[in-house]
Amino acid sequence: MTIRFTADTHFGDHRTLNIHRRPFASVAAMDAALIAAWNATVAPDDIVWHLGDVARRVADVAGLLAALHGIKHLLRGNNDDPAIGEVPGWASVADYAEIVVDDRALVLCH
């Protein structure tokens, strides 16, 4: 088991293609690449802390959580609809967390 951190995936968000200049022809291509990269890196028993801004549409989150490897914790971001945290599949949901990894205290937030 490995503890991993990510943020600002912005699944399904067309704005990230322009604002952040992500190199994809479409949102579908971006989402597919993000899922493939995530699953190539994250094992099913890895712990993943997602530090906010998960997805544009709440309706997409359940499918994403099912498709992505790992035990997923959410720390809500400024672009996350509050309902994203209510989608089944999160191990925990909060705005802030304090954890210890390898004897180091970490403060996590978006």
Describe the protein in words.
It is a single chain. The protein is α/β, with parallel strands linked by helices and 110 residues long. It has three helices and six strands, in the order βααβαββββ. It has helices spanning 15-19, 27-41, 58-67, and strands at residues 3-6, 47-50, 71-75, 90-94, 96-101, 104-109. It has a four-stranded parallel β-sheet, with no helix packed on it. The radius of gyration is 14 Å and the shape is globular. It starts with a strand and ends with a strand.
Salient structural properties:
single chain; 110 residues; alpha/beta; two-stranded antiparallel ribbon
Describe the structure concisely for a colleague.
It contains 3 helices and 6 strands; from the N terminus they run E-H-H-E-H-E-E-E-E. It has 110 residues and is an alpha/beta fold. The protein has a 4-stranded parallel beta sheet, with no helix packed on it. A two-stranded antiparallel sheet has the order 5-6.
Count of helical stretches: 3
> Which class best fits the helix and strand makeup?
alpha/beta
The value of Rg in angstroms is: 14 Å
The portion of residues assigned to helices is 25-40%
Largest sheet: 4 strands, parallel
State the separation between the terminal residues, measured CA to CA.
Answer: 23 Å
Query: So what's the overall shape?
Result: globular
For the largest sheet, list the strands in their spatial order: 1-2-3-4
Q: How big a fraction of the residues is strand?
A: 25-35%
Q: Give the integer mean of the pLDDT values.
A: 95
Contiguous runs where pLDDT drops below 50 for at least 5 residues: none
Please tally the β strands and state the result. 6
